[in-house]
Amino acid sequence: MKPLLLGKFVTAPAYGQLAATPYGRLHTYDLADFLARWPELHEEALALLGDKRIHPTAYVHPQAIVGDDVIIGPDVKVHEFSTVRKGSVLCAGASVGFNCEVTSAFVGEGAVLGNRIGINRTIVGNRAHLSAGVTVAAIAVSADMSAPEREISLRTEGGAYRCRTTQFGAVIGDKVQTGNNISLGPGILIGRSSQIDSGVTLAIRAVPENSVVTAPHTAQTRIRSRNNAGVEEMLP
């Protein structure tokens, strides 16, 4: 399995206190290696930052919730009714809109999460912009969703890539722009400067940089019915 360097998709933080932490080397990591070491690297970053884990220029709305281990850089904005938890990182100038849920995620410099965004175990690149209603799932559907067992893998130009974890949502590259009501993951790589149109659903694959991903026209929507024998049948 060929390495999949994060530097092909995202830029490491260069501004503020994060540049001097392990996150400043983000671009050098293979994806699977980074996912395995992420908790350890985050703890190292927290130790280096000490009581400066939240920059004094950051704005957190009084009705937002921020976890005790979250790192927030300069000029970040977290708006009302949003929750940022469990080892997340918001780099300089990032914005988290109304009623978002950010869990175990890295949000790059100048990136924008619009309203009602839900991302989990996800890396968002610099100046990416996710519009309202984008959701990134981090685990595959299984018999017991509270204890996932299925390893996340994805298709790349070089063949199958094993993430060696049961929890991985997406890498969303620098300057990626999305429409609304989009479902991504688990196991998605979106190349730099790509565009994801409204209504798209994607999982277990890599999208090259400078791509445009569109949803099927409503006339192409397929409806299936399950009969009593459990066999799917096409409906007109």
In short:
With 236 residues, this protein is mostly beta strands. It contains 1 helix and 26 strands.
Could you walk me through the main structural features you see in this protein, from its secondary elements to its overall organization?
- The protein has 236 residues and is mainly β.
- The protein has 1 helix and 26 strands.
- The chain has one helix spanning 31-49, and strands at residues 59-60, 65-66, 71-72, 77-78, 83-85, 89-90, 95-96, 101-103, 106-107, 112-113, 118-120, 123-124, 129-130, 134-136, 153-156, 159-162, 170-172, 177-178, 182-184, 188-190, 195-196, 201-202, 205-207, 212-213, 224-226, 232-234.
- The chain has a 7-stranded parallel sheet with strand order 3-6-9-12-17-20-23, with no helix packed on it.
**General form:** globular
Distance between the termini: 43 Å
Helix content: under 10%
**Radius of gyration, in angstroms, nearest whole number:** 18 Å
How much of the polypeptide forms β-strand, as a percent range? 25-35%
Could you tell me the number of beta strands?
Answer: 26
How would you spell out the order of helices and strands?
A: HEEEEEEEEEEEEEEEEEEEEEEEEEE
Content-based structural category: mainly beta
Number of helices: 1
Low-confidence stretches: none
- Provide the spatial order of strands within the biggest beta sheet: 3-6-9-12-17-20-23
- Could you describe the largest sheet, including whether it forms a barrel? 7 strands, parallel
| Overall mean confidence score, pLDDT | 91
